[in-house]
Amino acid sequence: LSPGAKMGCFTFIKVMMILFNLAIFLSGGTLLGVGIWVKVDGESFLKIFGTLSSVLQVVNVSYLLIVLGAILLVIGFLGCCGAQKESKCLLMMFFSVVLIIFIAEVTAAVVALVFTGLAETLLTGLVTPLLKEKYGVDDAFTDIWNATMTEVHCCGLNNYTDFNNSYFYETHGIYPRQCCDMEELCNSTLAAESAVKGCFTQILEEIKTNAGVAGGVAAGIAALEIAAMAVSMYLYCQLDKK
Question: Which residue windows are transmembrane per the record (predicted)?
């Protein structure tokens, strides 16, 4: 290629890098704002997004969105400014951050596939105490879990025993009606006979059912990350030749 063509190619890729990372930056700001909104006013989020919000609450969506939003803001800023200012330092930082995230995603995927039981144990340790303490006390938390259990047809994280010694059970002497196929007076006998599965099991089955879609999305994200790293490294190397 002639010097002019090389320069034109460099400029085109630089502009695409800026626009792509500007979109990432704006997306990060949006996610961060939504995460803060969910944290401050979870009831409004539940009313607007319904079942989606109830499922996401299992992983505490407010903190998840805040963290993802902050990460995307950093990535977008580094990539956009690095390309605009033609800064080798910022471009290398962008490459490094995306590489770290890529490695973390691959590691998390492998761990999730190989150590599903470990994931269930960790979630049990985190979520079950919240069910015992906040279900029936915190209205937003209770509404979200009620919506989750009703829509997914599940009870607790593992099963009805998650509510043993909980505030709700100690106060009312019964389990949530979702644990007994919507029977109002859900005692331990009815809950055991109903054998309603825990939400973790049900959601895991849904994920396995839609594994193809989830895998396609994951592959798409991985491809974008690899492309972003390749473009940033191309710009980094071309700066040495200018």
Answer: 12-38, 58-78, 90-115, 213-237
Number of domains in the chain: 2
Residue type at position 36 = I
Q: How many CB atoms lie within 10 A of CB 19?
A: 12
Q: What's the CA gap between 193 and 200, in Å, rounded? A: 20
Using a 10 angstrom Cβ sphere, with 0-12 exposed, 13-18 middle and 19 or more buried, the burial of residue 110 is exposed
**How long, in residues, is the chain?**
242
Distances (CA, A) of 134 to 130, 163, 219: 6, 11, 37
Amino acid identity at 66: I
The vertex-132 CA angle with 129 and 136, nearest 5°, equals: 140
Query: Quick check: is 98 in a domain?
Result: no
Please give the pLDDT value at position 236: 87
Residue 48 CA to residue 124 CA, distance in Å, equals 28
Q: Which residues pair with 175 in a beta bridge?
A: 186
Which helix (H) or strand (E) covers residue 18, if one does?
helix 3-40
Give the rounded distance of the alpha carbon of 121 from its chain centre.
19
Phi-psi region of 154 (alpha: psi -120 to 50; beta: other; left: phi over 0): beta
Q: Which domain holds residue 6?
A: 1-85
Q: Whole-model pTM above 0.85?
A: no
Residue 70 belongs to some domain of the structure: yes
Report helix angle 88-114 to 211-239, nearest 10: 160
Whether 176 and 169 have beta carbons less than 8 Å apart is answered as no
**Most confident region among 68-72, 172-176, 220-224 by mean pLDDT:** 172-176
**Is the predicted pLDDT of residue 120 greater than 50, yes or no?**
yes
Beta carbons of 154 and 195 less than 8 angstroms apart: no
In the numeric block, which tokens belong to residue 102?
């890529």
